[in-house]
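Table 4 source record.
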Amino acid sequence: MKVVTLTSDEPHHLFLISVLAASFQVVGAVVEPGVEKRRRMRRLRLWSSYLWFTYHYIRRKVFGLESYRKHYFAAYTNWMALKNVAITETTWINSSLVQASLLAWKPDVVIVCGTSILLTKTLRLCGATVLNVHGGYLPDYRGNHCIFFALYEQEYDKIGATIHFVSKGIDTGDIVEVIRPEIDPSDNAEKIYCRADYLAFVRLVELLHAYEQGNALPRRRQPPVGRTFKMKDRKPLHDILYWLKRRLRLIIIPKRCCTNREKR
């Protein structure tokens, strides 16, 4: 089975590529770095998007969240498998070079994670089986910062990561499976996000093994519920208020001990 990955350059994306390469023939791995996303926003004068993207980048650096994610996934990344993958960087995931590469590779499965939204032509060239691992509980939380907002709104039963088919919308494709990680009262959004994505990536490999052997991937439509969060929706005030409420013990995260896979 020929697999192609389209990802950004964050630590969990390298981990994803490595676990796929350890199990399947990864014929292509395209990386759209975060710095290229920011440059594109500047070129197109998308100033609001650029400023919020930059704010969250700085916030993560200052509070050590980037460092935490890097060390968390470095411990699990299969570096030997990663060395055998030819990784191609691109300035835009929908570039003509990426589209030509997809046409040449003819993948059986494409895994998308953390890139800009795929245009219709790019998505069509990916083939019939295009999957995404979304760091949020679908269908209720789409877009960005989904685990943070589930914590912020104290909807602890809607914290997880979702494997789903990619469609034209933002996280609107048919759901394969929802992974709900363990939660501890001492956790923050970053810890839960890393834990949820790790479990979802491992589960994705299991599902693809079954798919390679001829089993159909689970698939169910998303009901028309939930919200889509953008970068700009998480403002400094949200972070300050949530920190104060945790500090004053106005919010106490309940412990959830068992990982649960939802298949509906």
